[in-house]
Amino acid sequence: MDRTARMRLTLALAVTLAAAWSAASAAEKAMKLYVTNSEGDDITVIDLATLQATGDIKVGDGVHGVCAPANGRELFTSIESENNLKVIDTATNEITATIPLTGTPNQCAATPDGRFVAVPIRNRDSVDIVDINQKRVVKVLPVKLPHNCYNAGSNDELYVSSMGSHEIDVIDLKKLDYSAKVPVGGIPRPYAVSRDGKLMYVALTDLHGFVIAAIPERKVIAHVDLPPAPPSTCALEPHTPTHGLELSPDGRELWVTSLADSGVYVYDVATRKLSEEIRVGACPNWITFSPDGRYCAISNSGSNDCSIVDTRTRREVARVKVGKGPKRLLAVEIQ
């Protein structure tokens, strides 16, 4: 083989390897958005590369919560009608395991390493701690009228809200017991916790806005009202003017829903200022971010669709039809 032929072959191999690496890299970083349809029996899957729905996963009537570990390889979803937690392989969207729970579940939360999942049990005044490796509940902790669990990026702590005690409790996963209980001044609805574990932002029943609580001091330190809005007519959340809020991945912004206004506001954590309203679908219910922070996704329970907002321009770039009564949603990067 002459020198020219060898150079051509080398170049061809380089191009082929580069293409293969690029494809592998894209596959490793595939991002999917999962939307639970609370009045149906499925989860809608949206490809965040194309901003289009790619299918539905049948999981059972009364699908409620959804959470995942940091690598995005598995998705956990709580099913009210069956009192269980189902494990989904995100590469295939197939159910790989079903874990019995002690009662009717709500919004779950997973540790980044995927070892533990906490699930509120509404009809038992408790929270189940599930060991995913063992595929079973390993601890049941008492909590009055639990609602939502949350993880702030720690393998050592999870949170559960108590609607009955007007507080949010911190679960120490090394001891499998509570380490703190933080009063929030009302009935807690959705909430978000800063990565350093110092602040929590909490929506309350009948409050069009949120409160900020200091976790170490265990007290509310600020009260933030959204601009005035008409009474909500949203059937799924009639007494919760704000039912979705989440911190951006960099922790600089808190995005907050206004159900009656069919919009979202952005709260700058440093300046404590609110943006103008971003219009989305009817009755915006829950919020999640793509792991890279590029998109904010909002489930619209009144119009049965999902708004996807570009976080840089703060404009809705897609509205994707999903199932009936969408509520919880989660974006994952599959590694």
The CATH topology turns out to be: Methylamine Dehydrogenase, Chain H
Number of domains: 1
Largest sheet: 4 strands, antiparallel
Considering the protein shown, what is the CATH homologous superfamily? YVTN repeat-like/Quinoprotein amine dehydrogenase
Gross CATH architecture: 7 Propeller
Structure described in brief:
With 335 residues, the chain is mainly beta. The protein has one helix at residues 3-28; strands at residues 30-37, 42-47, 52-58, 63-67, 74-79, 84-89, 94-100, 109-110, 116-121, 126-131, 136-142, 146-150, 157-162, 167-172, 177-183, 188-193, 199-204, 209-214, 219-225, 245-247, 253-258, 263-268, 278-279, 284-289, 295-300, 305-310, 315-321, 326-334.
Descriptive tags:
Methylamine Dehydrogenase, Chain H; mainly beta; 4-stranded antiparallel β-sheet; single chain; 335 residues; 1 helix
Describe this structure as you would to a colleague.
The protein has one helix at 3-28; strands at residues 30-37, 42-47, 52-58, 63-67, 74-79, 84-89, 94-100, 109-110, 116-121, 126-131, 136-142, 146-150, 157-162, 167-172, 177-183, 188-193, 199-204, 209-214, 219-225, 245-247, 253-258, 263-268, 278-279, 284-289, 295-300, 305-310, 315-321, 326-334. It has 335 residues and is mostly beta strands. It has a single domain (31-334), classed as 7 Propeller (Methylamine Dehydrogenase, Chain H), CATH 2.130.10. The strands form 7 sheets. It has a 4-stranded antiparallel beta sheet with strand order 3-2-1-28. Strands 4-5-6-7 form a 4-stranded antiparallel beta sheet, with no helix packed on it. Strand 18 and strand 19 (219-225) form a beta hairpin. The longest helix has 26 residues, at 3-28. 45% of the residues are buried.
